[in-house]
Amino acid sequence: MDTLKSHAPPCKPGFTLGEAAMTIDKDEEGQFIVTTVRGTAHRAPIVMIAGGLGVFEPRKPPIANITDFEDKGVEYIIRNPEIYQDKVCVIAGGGDSALDWSIYLAERKIAKRVVLVHRSSSFRGHLDSVQRVIDMAESGEIDLVTEAEVTGLQGADHLEQVIVTHQKDGERSIAADHFIPLFGLKPSLGPIGDWGLEIDKSAIKVNTLDYSTNIPGIYAIGDVNTYENKLKLILCGFHEGTLAVQSAFARIHPEKKNVLKYTTVNGVNGF
Ligand SMILES: Cc1cc2nc3c(=O)[nH]c(=O)nc-3n(C[C@H](O)[C@H](O)[C@H](O)COP(=O)(O)OP(=O)(O)OC[C@H]3O[C@@H](n4cnc5c(N)ncnc54)[C@H](O)[C@@H]3O)c2cc1C
Prior knowledge:
Elements: H1 2-6, E1 21-26, E2 32-36, E3 41-44, E4 47-49, E5 55-58, E6 88-92, H2 96-107, E7 113-118, H3 127-138, E8 143-146, E9 148-155, E10 159-166, E11 170-175, E12 178-181, E13 185-188, E14 199-200, E15 203-205, E16 218-220, E17 225-226, H4 234-252, H5 263-266
Parallel strand pairs: 4-16, 6-7, 6-12, 7-8, 15-17
Antiparallel strand pairs: 1-2, 2-3, 5-13, 9-10, 10-11, 14-15
Bound molecules: flavin-adenine dinucleotide (FAD).
């Protein structure tokens, strides 16, 4: 990274770090306005997207009405354990997050009751955590329901009941204040996915002539793009960026001739 950064100063770039680009608009002069999550707005004739795999979002279980209960009893990430004080919490999952949070909420007597639901009888988590959950289930500190899945949610203004379907015993309803599915994170394009770009399997389709997208003036380079024979390698991202910049220069300065120069001849500061 440091070596790469040392190439940047001759081009006098500006940096906006730690802020996700959220929206893109066009002003009356046809310039793009990209606005970040903190409201920083950048105006430019060209936008080059190098968003990699995008942002990571929680994997949601396939329960039809789950979004109705988001922030009303359903949480995919535990941010503040104190909100579970004296509540009945149903946690789902078989990895370290599900095991560790079940132990944490039960051991510290935060939750009134912790029910851990997992679709298999074996866990993917750390062996110590698996053993601790089994011990706590035996002592009655955690209700462990294996070979089962949460298949339904019910409630009026807030979650009230969680429907658990057991592979052999069928359905049962558990009165619960919170349902916390901890199934890990998956990459997603995030806000860029809503910019009107042509998307294929969470990546932006580009023309390999110049890595332009379906919106004139927007390019996509690196892991964020897709085309036939795409390889997600650093080398490929650099190649795509180089060709995209040539095309962008021609769009911004149609009257100018772009002469290719070599750093080996002119030096890094020779442009
Ligand atoms: C384990 C592993 C090993 C690898 N080894 C190699 C190797 O040996 N050789 C090789 O060539 N390649 C390797 N790769 C692939 C290489 O890491 C990628 O091809 C390269 O990092 C892609 O660069 P990028 O800039 O396109 O994306 P990234 O490096 O993923 O950067 C994208 C950035 O954009 C940010 N972002 C996303 N959305 C937004 C938004 N809306 N607003 C602002 N920022 C946003 C992300 O947070 C991220 O910081 C490896 C990959 C992995 C996972």
